[in-house]
UniProtKB/TrEMBL annotation:
Record has Hydrolase as a keyword: yes
Cofactor: Ca(2+)
UniProt protein name: Si:dkey-174i8.1
Ranges in coiled-coil conformation: none
Family: Belongs to the sulfatase family.
Xref: SUPFAM superfamilies: Alkaline phosphatase-like
Transmembrane parts of this sequence: none
Natural source organism: Cyprinus carpio (Common carp)
GO MF terms, alphabetically ordered: metal ion binding; sulfuric ester hydrolase activity
Alphabetically ordered keywords of this record: Calcium, Glycoprotein, Hydrolase, Metal-binding
Length: 353
């Protein structure tokens, strides 16, 4: 089976068709995005505006449940993480019998790396990131870490510089910002001296720090030649925390609540593979949708001959018009596969991944 996958990638590489590199950036508690504010976010504004803004995008009200749904594609009630975050003394983690997104991507030939905050348990060795599909991990296992973003970009750059571009890459960057404690470097704080409250100045500077970090990642993608064959996904893990100056206006509520302000999140997809620009999607999307959507898209690239752009992706991507511009295959060995939900695909074709 492994030889068959390696052969598939060799053939794809020979045709210049390496499956897209995937960079997923998860931020904490960002209640505002590209909707206009006093906070400077030129990179996020540009990346979101150039491709697809997800304006009806939902997550869970706190971090561990949201991240668990990203990693497993399952609602947190099925993983035992529905109650709260995983505290340092809790013997709790992702169930080891549930295949994670990086595990599936590794089976499909991807190189998988994580930088940032895990917060999905560490009570046993099998709970750690490198036991859950990641080939490398540098970051924090809990949520109690410094929140300045810039140090996280250093290992990201090292990963991109040392990676073979003919091997598809999945890079998960989980930033602690803009979670408390409110910390920001001086060069960003100087941009907000006119804001009245010191905590608000720090919060605004932290958001700008996230913007700056994402800009560094995109610049590195461009410089190292990944950008033209990459998909960048940006997501907050919850709504903003009002007591820490997070703003969800005009939505009611905030982090920790099931009001719209707690579960409706900032999210966008940016990729040069998306030819249509400036799309604002109102499709109902949940953080758990990334797992089946990304895997289905990879399956189409791996096992189907490319010839035209007529087939939509499954789930929510089929409702985003610009995704029809992506170079998708047109005549698979089993044409009905494209029309099936991913879970049903695995039932009918268990050896597909």
């Amino acid at each position: 089976e492994r030889e068959r996958r390696n052969l598939s990638f060799t053939l794809l590489a020979g045709q210049g068709r390496v499956p897209p590199h995937i960079v997923f950036v998860m931020v904490e508690d960002q209640g505002i995005g590209y909707h206009g504010s006093e906070i400077h976010m030129p990179v996020l504004d540009q990346l979101a505006g150039e491709r697809v803004k997800l304006e009806n995008y939902y997550v869970q009200p706190i971090c561990s449940p949201s991240c668990s749904q990203l990693m497993t594609g399952r609602y947190q009630i099925h993983t035992g993480l529905q109650h709260s975050i995983i505290h340092a003394r809790q013997p709790l983690c992702l169930p080891p019998n549930i295949p994670t997104l990086p595990e599936r991507l590794r089976q499909a030939g991807y190189s998988t790396h994580m930088v940032g905050k895990w917060h999905l348990g560490f009570c046993r060795p099998e709970c750690l990131p490198m036991s859950c599909g990641f080939q490398s991990f540098l970051g924090s296992l809990t949520g109690k870490t410094p929140t300045i973003c810039e140090p996280n970009t250093v290992p990201v750059k090292e990963i991109l510089r040392g990676h073979d571009q003919w091997t598809p890459l999945f890079l998960y960057v989980a930033l602690q910002a803009v979670h408390t404690p409110l910390q920001a470097p001086g060069h960003l704080l100087r941009n907000y001296q006119t804001l009245g409250h010191r905590p608000l100045r720090h919060y605004a500077a932290m958001v700008s720090g996230v913007d700056e970090s994402v800009g560094m990642i995109v610049s590195e993608l461009r410089e190292r030649g990944y950008y033209n064959n990459s998909v960048l996904i940006y997501s907050s893990d919850s709504g903003g925390q009002p007591v820490s100056w997070g703003c969800n206006w005009p939505l009611r509520g905030g982090k920790g609540s099931y009001w719209e302000g707690g579960v409706r999140a900032v999210g966008f997809v940016h990729s040069p593979l998306l030819k249509t620009k400036g799309v604002v999607s109102q499709a109902l999307i949940h953080v758990s949708d990334w797992y089946p959507t990304l895997l289905t898209y990879i399956v189409l690239h791996l096992f189907v001959d490319q010839c035209s752009l007529i087939h939509p992706l499954v789930h929510f991507l089929s409702s985003i018009r610009s995704f029809s511009d992506m170079p998708l295959p047109c005549t698979p060995p089993h044409a009905s596969l494209i029309l099936l939900p991913f879970a049903l695909m695995l039932v009918l074709y268990p050896n597909l991944l």
